[in-house]
Specification:
Blueprint: E1 2-7, E2 13-20, E3 34-39, H1 42-46
Antiparallel strand pairs: 1-2, 1-3
Length: 64
């Protein structure tokens, strides 16, 4: 199974679905723009919740 994060164009988490089984359809809803599929069990470790801001950086960006 997978943990799935739907996010807006701005990178805001708009929906999360935990332990999604294979071949199950999940709708991200509006304003979902992108999706990340992660190994099941990732959510508790990451302390992520709806409304959180995701920040995407290139591998070369080491500014943090």
């Amino acid at each position: 199974s997978l943990d799935i994060i739907f996010f807006s164009r701005e990178g805001r988490v708009v929906r999360m679905a935990a332990r999604v089984t294979p071949f199950r359809m999940i709708w991200g809803g509006w304003p979902a723009w992108g999706v990340m599929e992660l190994q099941s069990g990732w959510f508790p470790w990451a302390h992520l919740k709806e409304g959180d801001q995701l920040i995407f950086r290139s591998k070369e960006d080491r500014s943090c």
